[in-house]
């Protein structure tokens, strides 16, 4: 069987179904076989007809005594069948499926799996799945349930996958090395493929799932390991001379003492910069943990070694923020700090450090010798954008690369650090600078909304404090009518709730100049309240802002809420975060209640990963590489096991041509900036 054959060429598929299957990312035979069920319906127990009760979902087995079409008063057709077993007789009803009269034959035996209901005063089975007792695909067993799309049901998928498996006359070759399979006691590939789709019982299904979960994470670990290996083998960098005297002088001249975590991260980065292999390090720390000053130290060292630095930020607001901070830290030492954004329009050449958005990859940013590239909130940039910045480095040898430092305020769960970010060295700022107070956080139910508004007004009027109000949407949505939109809230709050205060509006569709003007007004204290979309998640530093109100808090991941919360509490005043939600109970409510107790980003990220999956931490729409088919990023034991196994195979991967071919075909999206 050719696993790379197009599904369109399969029996009973064709171009129309192939187009629908594409929505499920199924294009080849292999994709179809690897479209695993996400749960099973247990139809294995056969119930006698006289024992079934309304409300139950059961399987019965019997002979069709009679089947006919019947018209309702409104002209609709219903199909009625009488089915008999040794214990009695039962009526089965379907709606608008007249073809069943030709398919189901009187006198023949079938299994029916479905829900028992009342029809008038008698018990019936309503719209069940059915099949001949000669077959066992849709009934009489553990029945797989798949992710579906328009025109592709689980029943359709079961039929095609069952047919495919029956066509496997000779066993398919397993690409996993035999030594790995034996050592890990993995189930045989062909048996696992049958058992994952059509298991004889739950232990068999679980054994198959374990096999494919191992395979998925093992491939991911190998891919990451190969990237790290290639980076270390193929690339050269400027080996910076680390002048300890100058470094200590830089630290002494700072207007504050570095935390232990900042000192540790600085040592790790300086050690990397002193090598002739390019640094490839990720610096993770909560908002306000002091990542920018670490970046400033690395930039200073690059300047001492006669090379330039670039810092690429995802938004103009954040680029401006970095520009102001780095200019403050570095200009007095003699460094020329420049800002280049999409709206600045200047051609820049004579600089020591260039800060900007994706404008840094355009022609007008000319580097003479780029020794250090810093990428902030790196998961917001595509691989191509990062690669283009590195290509512009203008280094003396083709093999050379600038040192790469990526920074993020997004907390990284340990399991994801061990897999997706396994090719990056990781530095974590796990403590905050002294003086930063814990932000008091409350979940606010609907009935306390007006009291919260009154409290905000008092704080602003009595203490000259400022507030953020975050809305999930820019404009109202017909499909999400209960979700607050920034534009509508701005009108409502300006006129009805806070007519005596000065309000501003900030959202992603505004022009850069408009955004910058609003931010300037807020920073200078000309606005009391800023109503915004989550564009403020990164890059806004307003020390006098002490209140963060978040509408529709249940719509955000815990990590995103934590980052938004970190936009206040930058000064010495006590700060607050109010989480507005229509939910007052249930899982969603309990999840956001965790923010009242937990103030550490990494703990919230682990909790979000457990409760909602990686897409909620990083944004699934942008980062499909986080979607595992069958494994889980929460399974630390399996992740560590696959990491060890990949480490054993990596040096001799060339000995396994099938594994090499699989890796080449299944290249996942790169995480690292090259």
Largest beta sheet: strand ordering = 10-11-9-12-13-8-14
Alpha-carbon distance between the two ends: 37 Å
For this structure, what is the CATH class of one domain? Alpha Beta
- Number of distinct beta strands: 20
Would you give the CATH topology of one domain?
A: Rossmann fold
Radius of gyration: 31 Å
The CATH superfamily of one domain is P-loop containing nucleotide triphosphate hydrolases
Biggest sheet, open or closed, and with what strands and sense?
Answer: 7 strands, parallel
Averaged pLDDT, please? 86
The shape is: globular
Strand content: 15-25%
Task: Give the helix/strand layout.
Layout: H1 14-22, H2 29-33, E1 39-42, E2 57-71, E3 77-85, E4 88-95, H3 100-103, E5 109-119, E6 122-132, E7 142-145, H4 154-166, H5 178-183, H6 189-197, H7 202-234, H8 244-252, H9 260-273, E8 280-285, H10 291-304, E9 308-312, H11 316-330, E10 337-340, E11 353-356, E12 370-376, H12 383-391, E13 403-408, H13 414-418, E14 425-429, E15 440-444, H14 449-463, E16 466-470, H15 486-497, E17 503-506, H16 512-523, E18 529-532, E19 545-550, H17 558-565, E20 576-580, H18 586-597, H19 601-612, H20 615-618, H21 636-649, H22 657-665
Parallel strand pairs: 4-6, 8-13, 8-14, 9-11, 9-12, 10-11, 12-13, 15-20, 16-18, 16-19, 17-18, 19-20
Antiparallel strand pairs: 1-7, 2-3, 2-5, 3-4, 5-6
Helix pairs in contact: 6-7, 7-21, 9-10, 10-11, 17-19
Tags for this entry?
alpha/beta; Rossmann fold; 36% helix; disordered C terminus; 674 residues; 7-stranded parallel β-sheet; OB fold (Dihydrolipoamide Acetyltransferase, E2P); 22 helices; 19% strand
């Amino acid at each position: 069987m050719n696993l790379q054959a197009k599904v369109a060429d399969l029996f009973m598929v064709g171009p129309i179904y192939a187009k629908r299957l594409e929505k499920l990312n199924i294009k080849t035979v292999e994709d179809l076989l690897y479209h695993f069920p996400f749960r099973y319906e247990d139809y294995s127990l056969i119930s006698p007809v006289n024992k079934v009760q309304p409300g139950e979902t059961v399987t019965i087995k019997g002979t069709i005594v009679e089947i006919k079409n019947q018209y309702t008063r409104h002209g609709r057709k219903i199909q009625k069948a009488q089915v008999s077993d040794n214990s009695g007789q039962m009526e089965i009803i379907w709606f608008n499926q007249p073809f069943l009269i030709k398919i189901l034959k009187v006198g023949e035996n079938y299994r029916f799996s479905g829900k028992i209901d009342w029809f008038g005063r008698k018990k019936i089975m309503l719209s069940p799945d059915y099949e001949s007792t000669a077959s066992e695909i849709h009934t009489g067993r553990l029945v797989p349930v798949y992710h579906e799309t328009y025109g592709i049901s689980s029943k359709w998928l079961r039929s095609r996958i069952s047919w495919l498996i029956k066509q496997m006359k000779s066993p398919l070759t397993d690409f996993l090395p035999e030594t790995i399979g034996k050592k890990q006691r993995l189930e045989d590939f062909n048996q696992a493929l049958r058992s994952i789709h059509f298991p004889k019982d739950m232990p068999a299904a679980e054994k198959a799932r374990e096999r494919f979960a191992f395979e998925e994470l093992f491939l991911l670990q190998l891919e990451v390991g190969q990237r790290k290996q290639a980076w270390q083998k193929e690339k050269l960098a400027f080996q910076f001379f680390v002048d300890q005297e100058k470094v200590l002088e830089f630290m002494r001249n700072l207007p504050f003492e570095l935390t232990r975590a900042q000192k540790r991260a600085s040592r790790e980065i300086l050690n990397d910069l002193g090598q002739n292999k390019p640094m490839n390090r990720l610096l993770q720390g909560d908002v306000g943990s002091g990542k920018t000053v670490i970046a400033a130290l690395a930039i200073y060292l690059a300047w001492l070694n006669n090379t330039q630095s670039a810092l690429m930020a995802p938004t103009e607001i954040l680029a401006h923020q970095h520009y102001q901070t780095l200019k403050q830290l570095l200009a007095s030492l003699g460094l020329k700090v420049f800002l280049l954004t999409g709206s600045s329009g200047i051609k820049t050449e004579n600089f020591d450090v260039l800060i900007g958005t994706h404008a840094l990859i355009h022609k007008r940013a000319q580097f003479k010798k780029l020794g250090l590239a810093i990428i902030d909130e790196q998961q917001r940039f595509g691989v191509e954008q990062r690669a283009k910045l590195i290509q512009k480095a203008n280094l003396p040898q083709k093999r050379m690369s600038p040192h790469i430092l990526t920074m993020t305020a997004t907390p990284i769960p340990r399991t994801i650090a061990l897999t997706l970010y396994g090719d990056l060295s990781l530095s974590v700022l796990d403590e905050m600078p002294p003086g930063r107070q814990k932000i008091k956080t409350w979940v606010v139910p609907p009935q306390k909304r007006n009291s919260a508004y009154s409290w905000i007004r008092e704080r602003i009027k009595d203490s000259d404090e400022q507030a953020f109000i975050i809305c999930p949407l820019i404009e109202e949505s017909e499909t999400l009518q209960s979700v607050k939109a920034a534009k509508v809230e701005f009108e409502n709050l300006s006129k009805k709730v806070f007519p005596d205060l000065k309000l501003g509006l900030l959202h992603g569709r505004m022009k850069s100049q408009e955004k910058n003007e609003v931010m300037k007004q807020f920073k200078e204290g000309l606005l009391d309240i800023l109503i915004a979309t989550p564009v403020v998640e990164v890059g806004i530093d307003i020390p006098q802002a002490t209140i963060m109100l978040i509408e529709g808090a249940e719509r955000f991941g815990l990590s995103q809420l934590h980052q938004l919360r970190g936009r206040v509490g930058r000064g010495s005043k006590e700060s607050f975060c109010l989480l507005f939600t229509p939910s007052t109970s249930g899982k969603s409510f309990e999840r956001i209640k965790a923010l009242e107790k937990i103030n550490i980003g990494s703990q919230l990220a682990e909790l979000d990963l457990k409760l909602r999956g990686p897409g909620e931490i990083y944004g699934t729409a942008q980062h499909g590489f986080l979607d595992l088919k069958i494994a889980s990023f929460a399974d630390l034991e399996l992740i560590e096991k696959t990491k060890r196994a990949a480490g054993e195979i990596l040096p001799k991967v060339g000995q396994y041509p099938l594994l090499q071919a699989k890796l080449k075909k299944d290249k996942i999206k790169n995480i690292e900036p090259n």
